[in-house]
Amino acid sequence: MSTTERPRILIVGGGYVGLYAAMRILKKMRYGEATVTVVDPRSYMTYLPFLPEAAGGNVAPRNLVAPLRKTLKQAEVLTGSVTGIDHARKVATIQPAAGDSYELPFEYLVVATGSVSRTFPIPGLAENGIGMKTVEEAIGLRNHVMAQLDKAESTTDPEVRRKALTFVVIGGGFAGIETVAEIEDMARDASKLYKTVSRDDMRFVVVEAANRILPEMGPDLGLWTKEKLEERNIEVYIETSMDSCVDGHVMLKNGMEMDAATIVWTAGVKPNPVLANFGLPLGPRGHVDTAPTLQVQGFDYVWSAGDNAQVPDLAAGEGAWCPPNAQHACRQAVVLGDNVISGMRGFPQKEYKHKNLGAVAGLGLHKGVAILFGKYKLKGRPAWWFHRLYHGAMVPTFNRKVRVFTDWTLAMFLKREAVGLSQMENPQLPIQEVTPPTKPVEAAEPAADKELASK
């Protein structure tokens, strides 16, 4: 970490808001005007809408992350966590990836810690559930699904096969529906390479507590999506939830039970719990309470946006809040970056007000659903093309855009790679298997005992 006499803009979090706000600040800032410091436990930003496609093998994992140090060359990037904020002294406590914690002074603060998976104390969930909030989880899910097909092919035990080929996704929002659609697509393609495993042997189940899936799309597109999934033999159960999944035995509130080796949890998100240590006003669900200018209520030197913030939705009217999605996070980050520069120079703050562009969801290769500007609805292949064009354009950095579009272009001519690398989960296993056990070290005999033995 370098030291500087310049004022420091401390950005806590390197996700959507952290990365895009830092890019905006660095672009608008005069040379030497301030030091921008970004702190995040990971050294890269993940483009979350591509996680289902990564799980389905349509986007390489390295192409959906943007390395912070390469993208923010003019900023300090610290790999670690901010564990506390002392506002009286304007000092943050940093816990680095290695070593002791230390204090870091700042003049301006951006809180962009994002969200984490919202979970419940369901028996077996911690031991058997797979989330979809990180690239590691997405690639782990892909490898896990392929490993289950390998397992089913290698056994004749019907119970083992049935459990291995049962895939349950909890949550019927964007993450859940896109994930089940992508892995079903991948598994159906992969099954053509197996002699004793076919798509008819597999069971895919979606469980949603609300009365419809994809609520952001409206009731008609949500119903259309449900019907299309069911045409692909994907079971969709609404107005129910999971009570238990101990040892992979899934028990639903509607009375249904099944054994599943794959349980994916996508039942919503919540603000990062570390916010409780930052001394900021929080809303009823733990979000940082912000003004329309994205300034935290009661603080003229602190801004927040994205999934961890409670931002008034001026376009929707009084009492409405911006939903936690990538579209808002990316656009809020630009306004936030401009307001940090304005605050540093003593200029007025600008309010965040958006025009809704709509929503898109991919349902596997050449299948999708979209609603544009709140009124234009697309289904099937046109929606899928729009989904790819929109997210391809929004992924950060020109380098990543080229790589993603190259992946997609090659996929038009080459078949998807149906291979899982399950050994990646434990890279030490091969050397552990071939290393002989060490011999126990014999305790040295006391000198007195040696003298008696010689006599």
From TrEMBL:
Residues 430-455 are annotated as: Disordered. It holds the Pfam family Pyr_redox_2. Residues 8-315 form the FAD/NAD(P)-binding domain. Keywords: FAD, Flavoprotein, NAD, Oxidoreductase. The keyword Acyltransferase does not apply. It comes from the Bacteria. Belongs to the NADH dehydrogenase family. This is NAD(P)/FAD-dependent oxidoreductase.
